[in-house]
């Protein structure tokens, strides 16, 4: 499929409809998303996908973040793309398997950790030397880590006796990690955008002293700052996806660290603007905060930020 006549934004509406449908049928989430083709956008046509670049999966991830999808959609997309042409890749693409990625540990270390939805996934990608291995989670012991999210915990796996289904070499693993960074940045931007929209709607409807809260100047200033930060984060990711003036790929790590920093601010401010409601379990904003914090922890965003700062200083 040629992408000359397409733009990534065209996929947002279709992704939104599919995600809402999946959320209305939680027991069939994976099947609904697979049938809608959300996992196939950036998989080569020869292997059953649409043959489009990873930038065309960005609106899928962003919409998932905005609508608080409780499924490892980013992991599923990048694993289906990386393992295209293999039996495991075909199963991931068609929704026969759910995949996740461990961002700590390795086969050599004998453990894997910081893997979202590991207690419900079927396969997990773990580091293996300079590359990575896709293991069958049915062959290992997985323990839930509910520290950040008791409803959708991350997982810790002991890898003794792990069954390896497929492997990635160093170059393919590096490409997958770049795709993960891009799509997690998009997901986080979506989470911020969703929190902002929910706040704007609530403040326009909530009336105090005869006026909606959104009419108050201080409240409008908060909303404007939230909007500005979110638009900058989205624009930063779009720029990172474009080649530089030397026709070289740009680094994408700054897009992720900037997105995470903004999303934490926006979601926490949204909770604040909802007043007493913002601290209740009934308000859906806490799902977005959990998602952002889990991604921040899994990818060690603090260490990435420090590394980016050191590189900037060294280059000065």
For the record, what is the CATH homologous superfamily label of the largest domain?
A: Butyryl-CoA Dehydrogenase, subunit A, domain 3
Helix-strand category: alpha+beta
pLDDT < 50 runs, ≥5 residues: none
Strand content: 5-15%
Largest sheet: 7 strands, mixed
What is the N-to-C order of secondary-structure elements (H for helix, E for strand)?
HHHHHEEEEEEEHEEHHHH
Structural description of this entry:
Helix content is 50%, strand content 15%. The chain is an alpha+beta fold and 316 residues long. It folds into three domains: 1-97, Butyryl-Coa Dehydrogenase, subunit A, domain 1 (Orthogonal Bundle); 98-168, Butyryl-CoA Dehydrogenase, subunit A, domain 2; 173-310, Butyryl-CoA Dehydrogenase, subunit A, domain 3 (Up-down Bundle). The N and C termini lie far apart (43 Å).
Salient structural properties:
316 residues, alpha+beta, Butyryl-Coa Dehydrogenase, subunit A, domain 1, Butyryl-CoA Dehydrogenase, subunit A, domain 2, Butyryl-CoA Dehydrogenase, subunit A, domain 3, 3 domains, seven-stranded mixed β-sheet, two-stranded antiparallel ribbon, 50% helix, globular, AcylCo_DH-like_C, acyl-CoA dehydrogenase activity
Quick structural overview:
The chain has helices spanning 10-24, 29-35, 58-66, 73-82, 87-94, 170-205, 217-240, 253-273, 285-298, 301-315, and strands at residues 99-106, 111-116, 123-128, 131-136, 141-145, 154-158, 163-168, 207-208, 211-212. It has 316 residues and is α+β, with helices and mostly antiparallel strands.
């Amino acid at each position: 499929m040629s992408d000359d006549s397409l733009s990534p934004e065209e996929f947002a509406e279709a992704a939104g409809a599919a995600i809402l449908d999946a959320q209305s049928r939680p027991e069939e989430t994976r099947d609904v998303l697979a049938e809608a083709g959300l996992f196939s956008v950036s998989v080569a046509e020869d292997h059953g996908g649409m043959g489009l670049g990873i930038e065309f999966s960005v609106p899928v991830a962003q919409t998932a973040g905005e609508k608080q999808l409780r499924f490892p959609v980013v992991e599923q997309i990048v694993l289906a793309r990386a393992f295209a042409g293999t039996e495991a890749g075909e199963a991931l693409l068609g929704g026969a398997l759910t995949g996740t990625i461990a961002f700590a540990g390795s086969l050599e270390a004998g453990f894997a950790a910081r893997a979202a939805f590991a207690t419900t996934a079927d396969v997990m990608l773990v580091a293996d030397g300079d590359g990575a291995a896709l293991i069958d989670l049915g062959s290992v012991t997985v323990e839930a880590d509910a520290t950040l999210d008791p409803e959708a915990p991350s997982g810790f796996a002991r890898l003794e006796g792990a069954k390896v289904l497929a492997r990635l070499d160093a170059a393919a693993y590096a490409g997958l990690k770049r795709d993960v960074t891009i799509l997690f940045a998009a997901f986080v931007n979506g989470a911020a955008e969703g929190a902002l929209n929910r706040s704007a709607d609530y403040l326009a409807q909530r009336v105090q002293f005869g006026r909606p809260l959104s009419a108050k100047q201080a409240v409008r200033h908060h909303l404007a700052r939230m909007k500005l930060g979110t638009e900058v984060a989205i624009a930063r990711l779009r720029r990172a996806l474009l080649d530089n003036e030397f026709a070289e790929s740009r680094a994408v790590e700054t897009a992720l660290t900037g997105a995470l920093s903004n999303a934490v601010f926006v979601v926490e401010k949204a909770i604040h603007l909802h007043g007493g409601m913002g601290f209740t379990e009934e308000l859906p904003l806490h799902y977005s905060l959990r998602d952002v914090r889990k991604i921040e922890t899994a990818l060690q965003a603090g260490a990435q930020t420090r590394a980016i700062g050191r590189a900037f200083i060294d280059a000065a």
